[in-house]
Amino acid sequence: MFHVCFSKCKKVRSLITIKRRTWMFKLLYKLGFFPNVYIYGNIKVIQSLTFQGNGTLILRDRCMLGVYPSPNVYNGEFYIEARKESAKIEIGERVFINNNAIIIADKSSITIGDNTLIGPNFVCFDSNFHPINPSKRLSSDYSCKPVKIGRNVFIGANVTLLQGVTVGDNSIIGAGLTISEDIPENTIVKTELAASFIKLEV
Fold first, then answer.
1. Cα Rg of the chain (Å, integer)
2. Which of 27, 89, 94, 158 has the fewest Cβ atoms nearer than 10 Å?
């Protein structure tokens, strides 16, 4: 009997937490605390969300930031930053991104297409943040390249996407990979080698 009550209490806690986080984010949005955020439709904020920067964040209908039940839903952080005014992050319709994601657009853009599923601990940057040239390492003389994730993409846990990458529609990226080159549509990527693409049957 105790276990049943405990289980119900946990479910109630999760529902309250999810409702409160989504409600609070939408309230602050309506009150003008996020002047660079644009919400189109109904969204869900499951994990604690931090949004920083002078750029633009676009959230489209039924996207979900954080997942329950999934690790770190209570004690982790979902971090989004559109750093400069020119930066833009757009998350499409019905996009589900698991907990502890870090998405930073420094000077260009990051776009995630509709119906995309992303596992926990996802990291995505449009920038190296420091010059590759050692003599300029501490300067701000570096470039940024947009990242584009297509529609209906499935990205596993602990994946990192680096600047300038385009992921084609319907593709799958295996867990734990760092992606620095474009991925064609309808492709499965299982290792970090560019030659390891496997064509999907569609």
1. 18
2. 27
Burial of 59 (0-12, 13-18, 19+ CB in 10 A): buried
Q: Six-digit token pair at 162?
A: 């680096």
Under 8 Å between Cβ of 143 and 159: no
Lowest mean pLDDT among 10-24, 40-54, 99-113: 10-24
20: helix, strand or coil: helix
Across 22-36, average pLDDT: 91
- Which residues, including other chains, have CB under 8 Å from residue 85's CB and lie 6 or more apart? 54, 55
Q: Give me the numbers of helices (H) and strands (E) for the chain, helices first please.
A: 1, 20
3 in active site: no
* Domain ranges, ordered by start, for the chain: 2-199
To the question of pTM greater than 0.85 for the whole model, the response is yes
| Amino acid letter, residue 177 | L
Of 17, 103, 111, 141, nearest in space to 67 by CA: 17
Shortest CA distance to 166 belongs to which of 144, 181, 186, 177?
Answer: 181
Marked catalytic residue, from 11, 20, 130, 199: 130
CATH topology of domain 2-199: UDP N-Acetylglucosamine Acyltransferase; domain 1 (2.160.10)
